[in-house]
Amino acid sequence: MPGNTGAETRVSSKDNLDQRSDIDLIADINRGDAAAFEVLYFRYRDWVVAQACRFTGDTNSALDVMQETFLYVLRKFPGFRLTANFKTFLYPAVRNLSIAARRKSARYQSNDGEQLALENTAAPAVPLSGNEELTAILAPLSEEHREVLLLRFVDGLSLAEIATAMEIPVGTVKSRMHNALETLRNDPRTKELFE
Questions:
Q1: Residue 172 sits in which domain range?
Q2: Which 3 state secondary structure label does DSSP give 131?
Q3: 72, 64 in Cβ contact below 8 A?
Q4: The pLDDT of residue 113
Q5: 140 with 117, same domain?
Q6: Which of residues 124, 148, 180 is at a domain's end?
Q7: pTM value surpassing 0.90
Q8: How far apart (Å, rounded) are the C-alpha atoms in residues 156 and 159?
């Protein structure tokens, strides 16, 4: 391909062929293996951007959050120990950096009254895979309820992993999940899915 540097192909194909677990990659990074960090980066970058986009509603801000997230991860080395699923570790960082990016963006685009109103509203729902109907269906849910549903059914995290990622008790995750599903069960657009 014209313009392909070769390094991109090397890393991408290396990630596709690299069967090391996240824990093995982290151990290798702790020993100074920069290529292991590249594999970890390419393995999770799209997921991080998708999460950031959910919070910011803006692709450019999501890309900035992705960079800041991996800089945050890089600063953990050497000596980093993974005690949970890597997505569970990344999620709070992505969330906090996204919220900060959204606030920073709002500061440059609004006055103080608008800023306060923005901080008190949920993040805009972002179309998933271009499906605007799904976005419209999830829009009435609070940010917390939408977040739990997406982490469970889109990202495939367990209830315990969601609790760890969101830094809330498992009981709260279950309650939010129940309330979100009940809201969707009563929505005429999704009611038939529950019958």
A1: 127-195
A2: strand
A3: no
A4: 55
A5: no
A6: 124
A7: no
A8: 9
